[in-house]
Amino acid sequence: KPRIVVAASGRGSNFEKIAEAVSTGLLNATLECLLVDRECGALEIARNFGIRSYLLSKPWHKSFDEIIDQINPHLIVLAGFMRIIPENLVEKYFPRIVNIHPSLLPAFPGKDAIVQAYEYGVKVTGVTVHIVDKGVDTGPIIFQKALEVDESWSLEQLEEKIHQIEHEWYWRVIRELLYRPFEIVGRKFRWLDEEGL
Ligand code: GAR
């Protein structure tokens, strides 16, 4: 079975959906462990699922690298991990680090993307899943899902809709990445079979 590692810094709702998909067999992979850089909700979710977790000691990137080196996972899944992966690690693991971002990149990179999009007043936003490269939220795009913003929505309502999309799709994209051939040419990601996602 392919091995995956998840890194998170927050609530862990995306991690939870991935753990669920693994435990129900929808995602045929071994969830080796959770890595966090701070005390956060994701740790409790790991406990509930009986998944090993590590609170990264400082400097976080050194322990991150050491743990990942030992596990040698097929995929490193960032799920709300609020750190920039240093260049040397990106080089070492490319294209095996994947990230989810709550906007249609390249719009609203960085922190608080949902708030940024809401305050900007966009009529369409969404979710992006991409391979991590040396930039911040710049890597090859694997998947995007658009969401039309109803002008009556509060920020909280928009957040909820975005999270619903993330929860529905992230584990599916991970599954595809583990089981389908792909290539990256320049900054373009492309599936090598005909199915499309
Ligand atoms: C998610 O919305 C994820 O897209 C976002 O953090 C949230 C984590 O929620 N990530 C970023 O903004 C990365 N730049 P969660 O802890 O409940 O999964």
TrEMBL record:
<keyword id="KW-0808">Transferase</keyword>
<protein>
    <recommendedName>
        <fullName>Phosphoribosylglycinamide formyltransferase</fullName>
        <ecNumber>2.1.2.2</ecNumber>
    </recommendedName>
</protein>
<feature type="domain" description="Formyl transferase N-terminal">
    <location>
        <begin position="3"/>
        <end position="174"/>
    </location>
</feature>
<dbReference type="GO" id="GO:0006189">
    <property type="term" value="P:'de novo' IMP biosynthetic process"/>
</dbReference>
<keyword id="KW-0658">Purine biosynthesis</keyword>
<feature type="binding site">
    <location>
        <begin position="82"/>
        <end position="85"/>
    </location>
    <ligand>
        <name>(6R)-10-formyltetrahydrofolate</name>
    </ligand>
</feature>
<dbReference type="InterPro" id="IPR002376">
    <property type="entry name" value="Formyl_transf_N"/>
</dbReference>
<comment type="pathway">
    <text>Purine metabolism; IMP biosynthesis via de novo pathway; N(2)-formyl-N(1)-(5-phospho-D-ribosyl)glycinamide from N(1)-(5-phospho-D-ribosyl)glycinamide (10-formyl THF route): step 1/1.</text>
</comment>
<comment type="function">
    <text>Catalyzes the transfer of a formyl group from 10-formyltetrahydrofolate to 5-phospho-ribosyl-glycinamide (GAR), producing 5-phospho-ribosyl-N-formylglycinamide (FGAR) and tetrahydrofolate.</text>
</comment>
<dbReference type="Pfam" id="PF00551">
    <property type="entry name" value="Formyl_trans_N"/>
</dbReference>
<feature type="binding site">
    <location>
        <position position="99"/>
    </location>
    <ligand>
        <name>(6R)-10-formyltetrahydrofolate</name>
    </ligand>
</feature>
<dbReference type="InterPro" id="IPR004607">
    <property type="entry name" value="GART"/>
</dbReference>
<feature type="active site" description="Proton donor">
    <location>
        <position position="101"/>
    </location>
</feature>
<dbReference type="GO" id="GO:0005829">
    <property type="term" value="C:cytosol"/>
</dbReference>
<feature type="binding site">
    <location>
        <begin position="12"/>
        <end position="14"/>
    </location>
    <ligand>
        <name>N(1)-(5-phospho-beta-D-ribosyl)glycinamide</name>
    </ligand>
</feature>
<comment type="similarity">
    <text>Belongs to the GART family.</text>
</comment>
<feature type="site" description="Raises pKa of active site His">
    <location>
        <position position="137"/>
    </location>
</feature>
<dbReference type="GO" id="GO:0004644">
    <property type="term" value="F:phosphoribosylglycinamide formyltransferase activity"/>
</dbReference>
<dbReference type="InterPro" id="IPR036477">
    <property type="entry name" value="Formyl_transf_N_sf"/>
</dbReference>
